[in-house]
Amino acid sequence: MNKNIALTIAALGLSCGMALAQTPADSVSRKLFPEEIERQKVLDNTKVIYVNSDDAPRPPADSVMSVINRFYVDQFRHFMDPKAPYLMFLTKDANLAMGIGGRIAMRGVFDWKDVVPANGFAPALIPIPGDPTQQRAIRAIPSGTCLFFTLLGRDARLGDYSAYIEANFNGFNHTDFMLKKAYVTFRDWTVGYATSTFSDPAAIAPTVDGAGPNGHVSKTNVLVRYMHSFKKNWTVAGSVEFPSSSVRDQDGYTKKCADWMPDLAAFMQYQWDGGLSHVRLSGLMRTISYRDLIAERNHNEVGFGVMLSSTVKVCRPLTLYAEASYGRGHGSYLNDLSIESVDLVADPGNPGRLYQPEAMGLTFGAKYNFTDAIFASFTLSEQQYYARNPRPAADYRYGLYGEACIYWQVTPRVLVGAEYITGKRVNNDRTHGNSNRIDATFQLSF
Description:
By secondary structure, this protein is mainly β.
């Protein structure tokens, strides 16, 4: 199974390269892709309220749409991110727009075999051995329900700038309000709590499941990022990110030190098809510290991560997605391993010493639009964790994730979908657990 998934990813990479070589440059004459049509419908559905005096002339319609469309100019946009707000307040000189929006999302979930005790389906959480009282479960949760505030402006010194705050109801007991993003962008800079530069949400196929594939790189940090596009099709970025490392101490032998060095992340990207297709190479470097309580000495361990990710519009209805990552000491950036706390772990046979284990994540997906409003997608993902021998028997060795879903965009702001997910967790002693889930969602954006 592991080799088959790796071969699938390799085949995808080859097909993406062929598609890149054969895809013509962006052309204004091409027919719009379904994603562009859906976005345009949302923009057309947006209601603009002008806040200047009544006698001031209104800006041209093209200028208004250009301002609102900046809401979607984001290299880190995920399928589940909110749509442009239904109501936008705009000055009549079109230099400042403000919107308050959100999404009501209700999701019904049914698990069987072994219940995953979380809103998101994470193979790392599959119990081994299974609990006979937790073989089936049904529940409904407001997962994905959120509120956001956005400000889009233009200033002589700052250039085009924006501010964005988003909070959702995924906190304590799955209903408490919690901050998800809060950042400001101006010119080529981003400052605030935002998606890590070592992440590519657009390279993941749509899912109903909020967690997404287990091998996906997913992290939100407080950061300062510089990102610049040039020659139309190229983008480069680099960031300084405030760390939140996760260390598994040896009781009585080691103790985690406070994080004192920022994580450094960067990427280089080539994009085409109006930004809907891209290939991205990303890198990460981080320092994690701990104290050897036996030798009474602090140690600094340097970790790294590399990732190749891509989204390719093979043809108008078909999109392929791929992501492959590898590194050491970067487990807190990976969906499954962020649960396991494996940035630093005990070095077998060396009391008082920790080391950074290796990990590899592979994800492949595809989406097919039957119409502009109805599409299906599937995702395969694997997370491998390479610990030193002798490995603790009950520790995570690898996890598998498979998903298929169908969505219907009923109106520009009403979306319904259903999904089947299967997952597997395997421990070092080869014991394993399997779980299955069916979930459905109803979403209203405003």
